[in-house]
Amino acid sequence: MAPLLPTVLWAQRSDKLYLTIDVQDVKEQTCDLQDGKLVFTGKAGGEAKDYALDLEFYAEVDASSEDSKVSVTARNVFIIIRKKDLGHWPRLCKESGKHLSHIKCDWSKWVDEDEEDEKPEADYGGQGAGGALASSAPTPYAPWTSTSLAAAAWVAWAEWVAWGAWGAWAG
């Protein structure tokens, strides 16, 4: 059986790429970062399904840089890659087309080129080997804490009562 193709989320800065390979509970993984490409293989999930990924980058990266790091967690594989030349890429891969539908933008880490100087870079790199990346990486659901959900529910209930809906429902 042919290996499955994992979903890849990507974001960039002028000097780095951020890749998240969406494979949960990955085992026996290999991640071969070269100056022009990334090759990933691994077994993931309870059934240990085979996954394989071969990405040819839009431009050269610096695979030997100390800033290029891989972090494997129970939820995914997160990779920070240093670009050889500064600048924003129009896409992640050299080629484009519908066959690359498994590659998606990671909007939680994305910063537009003209806003890069205004927004400080989050510290995705201080994770240690195999570290707890999820503990410091921002999530798109961060504002939805139990406190804010309770407050939203309270406001919705108060508006419902104020509209007289309680009387119509109860009576």
TrEMBL record:
Residues 3-93 form the CS domain. InterPro entries: CS_dom (IPR007052), HSP20-like_chaperone (IPR008978), p23-like (IPR045250). CDD domains: p23_hB-ind1_like. GO terms for molecular function: Hsp90 protein binding; protein-folding chaperone binding. One of its GO terms (biological process) is chaperone-mediated protein complex assembly. GO terms for cellular component: cytosol; nucleus; protein folding chaperone complex. Pfam families: CS. Belongs to the p23/wos2 family. This is Protein wos2. It comes from Tetrabaena socialis.
